[in-house]
Design a protein that fits this description.
Pathway: Amino-acid biosynthesis; L-arginine biosynthesis; L-arginine from L-ornithine and carbamoyl phosphate: step 2/3. By secondary structure, the chain is an alpha/beta fold. Helices cover 41% and strands 20% of the residues. The longest helix has 19 residues.
Length: 400
């Protein structure tokens, strides 16, 4: 098709992105394909992936270590926003897409490419996240999506790759489609496409089955500074270490499993399984600390903002004017969200059992019903009269 001469391809090492390399060159006339694999803490050995790209026909195979950026610039802002899509999914996979898009755009500029490419299909959310993010960062850059257009079945894709020396999967292919990074795993397809099928234990990797979890609870104290998690049990942790450590501790207690039918941006419903032990625990703890440090009007208003924020990120609008405006609001609300939250980890639950903050708005001598009560009970009568006056007038005028 001759749409581009030099292309930077987002590369995972799987069948689709590997086949994209010869397909771009043979079918679309691309002269040079540079692959980019992003290390986001997924635990894969990236050197074999880098070498596979070269064997598949890439002129250069880049590996970007972006885990630190992923946590600090994408995960932590989402925690400050308590981002849960449809009040359940903590966007563990969605948050990676705008970062990968930025890495693609940066690599295209560095290597003089006139296009970038990805292996997304036409049914998923990721195609939107990549295309829109790339357009926001560099609207002049072409975006190629071969898998969205080639119309090949899985078997045909494998056969096409074999023609160009790309080996077919040696072992029996898993029926599941799995994505993983430091924040969690997403699992779909195969038997999960029937929403009545209970997920088999084999789909989980980061979380234990409840039957295999410890029979004694574990207590954990999470320290926050301005809405950012910085310590566990009073010990400072770097961003990556904190997520890694908490994934292990919460996952050991079976915390972080989600089984949901979600609404994709393209208009279809999709049954998804997620594991996100640390991310869910942190959002749960952070939201609780806000209840201590935020005024009621700010806290209530922020809850609506959080829903909008989650939808924006899920729908691929990370680099949008509305997202930037919401970021400014969220950041302002976090100025006093500093303190410690005590969490009880037990049998699949992360229960908040304590919280404290130097900025706490909880006043014991006003809240108590004991002898130290400083609340003026007599003031309540006048308050109730004024507060209820519109309702009283409405009721009286409706009686005629």
């Amino acid at each position: 098709m001759g749409r581009a001469k030099k292309v930077v391809l987002a590369y995972s090492g799987g069948v689709d992105t590997s086949v994209c390399i010869p397909y771009l060159k043979e079918e679309w006339g691309v002269e040079e394909v540079i692959t980019l694999a992003a290390d986001l803490g997924q635990g894969d050995e990236l050197e074999p992936i880098r070498e596979k790209a070269l064997k598949s026909g890439a002129s250069q195979s880049l590996v970007a270590d972006a885990t630190q950026t992923f946590v600090k610039d994408y995960a932590f802002p989402a925690i400050q926003a308590n981002a849960l899509y449809e009040n359940r999914y903590p966007l563990s996979t969605a948050l990676a897409r705008p970062l990968i898009a930025k890495l693609l755009v940066d690599a295209a500029a560095e290597y003089g490419a006139d296009a970038v490419a990805h292996g997304c299909t036409g049914k998923g959310n990721d195609q939107v996240r990549f295309d829109v993010s790339i357009a926001a960062l560099n609207p002049d850059l072409k975006v190629l999506a071969p898998a969205r257009e080639w119309g090949m079945s899985r078997e045909e894709t494998i056969a096409y790759g074999e023609r160009f020396g790309i080996p077919s999967p040696v072992k029996k292919s898993s029926p599941y489609s799995i994505d993983r990074n430091l924040l969690g795993r997403s699992i779909e397809a195969g038997p999960l496409e029937d929403p009545m099928n209970e997920p088999l234990e084999e789909v989980y990797l980061m979380t234990r089955a409840i039957a295999d979890t410890p029979d004694e609870p574990e207590y954990l104290e999470i320290g926050f500074e301005r809405g950012i998690p910085v310590s566990l049990d009073g010990q400072p942790f770097s961003p990556i270490e904190l997520l890694t450590h908490l994934n292990d501790r919460a996952g050991n207690h079976g915390i972080g499993r989600i089984d949901m039918v979600e609404n994709r941006l393209v208009g279809i419903k999709s049954r998804e399984i997620y594991e996100a032990p640390a991310l869910l625990t942190l959002i749960h703890a952070h939201r609780d600390l806000e209840s201590l440090a935020l005024t009621s009007d700010v806290m209530h208003y922020k809850r609506g903002i959080e829903e909008t924020y989650s939808q924006i990120v899920y729908n691929g609008l990370w680099y949008s004017p509305l997202k930037a405006a919401l970021d400014a609001f969220v950041l302002k609300t976090q100025e006093r969200v500093t303190g410690t939250v005590r969490v009880k980890l037990f049998k699949g639950n992360a229960m908040i059992v304590g919280r404290q903050s130097a900025h706490s708005l909880y006043t014991p001598d006003l809240a108590t019903y004991g002898a130290d009560d400083k609340f003026d009970h007599k003031a309540a009568e006048g308050f109730i009269y004024v507060w209820g006056l519109p309702t009283r007038v409405w009721s009286q005028t409706g009686r005629g």
